[in-house]
C-alpha cells in the first residue's frame, strides 16, 4: 500500500498537478504550446548573369521566441558532377542571402529561406530566381 501511495504522489508531481489551492505548481511555469514562426513569402524574381541578388529573410513569432535564419540555393547531383554549383552565401546576422548568378544558372534556380525558433518551430519559403 505504501508503494502505491508513493507512486501516485510521484506521478502527480511529475505531471505538474498540485493539490489544494496552490496554483504555483510546475505547470504554471511551462508553456504548453509553441506557435511556429511565420516567414514572409518571396515571389519569383529575376536577375542577370554576373549580378549579385540580395534576398532578405523576414519572419515574426507571436510567442516572442528567439529566431534563427538560414537560406540556400538548391543544388542537383548533376550540378555537383559538372562543377556548376551556384555561388551564394547566407549571412545570418543580416538575414541575407547573396546569390551571384552565373551562365550555368540559366534558366532558373530554386531558393529557400527558412526560420527556426528556439522551441523547434519552423517555416520556410521556396521560390525561383530566373537568370537572364
Care to give the gist of this entry?
This protein has 132 residues and is mainly beta.
Structural description of this entry:
By secondary structure, the chain is mainly β. It has two domains: 1-30, no CATH class; 34-131, Immunoglobulins (Immunoglobulin-like, Sandwich), CATH 2.60.40.10. It is 14% helix and 37% strand. The chain has two helices and nine strands; from the N terminus they run αβββββαββββ. A four-stranded mixed β-sheet has the order 2-9-8-5, with no helix packed on it. β8 (108-117) and β9 (122-131) form a beta hairpin. The radius of gyration is 24 Å and the shape is elongated. The termini are far apart. Mean pLDDT is 84; it is low at 1-29.
Shape: elongated
CATH homologous superfamily grouping of the largest domain? Immunoglobulins
Report the uncertain regions: 1-29
Topology order in helix (H) and strand (E) letters:
HEEEEEHEEEE
CATH architecture type of the largest domain: Sandwich
CATH class of the largest domain: Mainly Beta
Distinct helical segment count: 2
Amino acid at each position: 500500500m505504501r508503494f502505491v501511495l508513493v507512486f501516485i504522489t510521484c506521478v502527480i508531481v511529475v505531471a505538474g498537478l498540485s493539490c489544494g489551492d496552490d496554483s504555483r505548481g510546475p505547470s504554471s511555469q511551462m508553456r504548453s504550446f509553441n506557435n511556429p514562426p511565420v516567414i514572409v513569402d518571396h515571389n519569383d524574381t529575376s536577375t542577370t548573369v554576373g549580378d549579385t541578388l540580395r534576398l532578405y529573410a523576414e519572419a515574426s513569432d507571436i510567442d516572442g521566441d528567439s529566431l534563427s535564419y538560414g537560406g540556400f540555393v538548391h543544388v542537383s547531383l548533376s550540378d555537383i558532377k559538372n562543377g556548376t554549383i551556384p555561388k551564394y552565401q547566407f549571412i545570418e546576422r543580416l538575414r541575407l542571402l547573396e546569390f551571384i548568378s552565373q551562365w550555368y544558372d540559366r534558366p532558373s534556380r530554386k531558393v529557400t529561406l527558412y526560420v527556426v525558433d528556439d522551441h523547434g518551430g519552423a517555416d520556410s519559403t521556396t521560390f525561383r530566381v530566373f537568370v537572364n
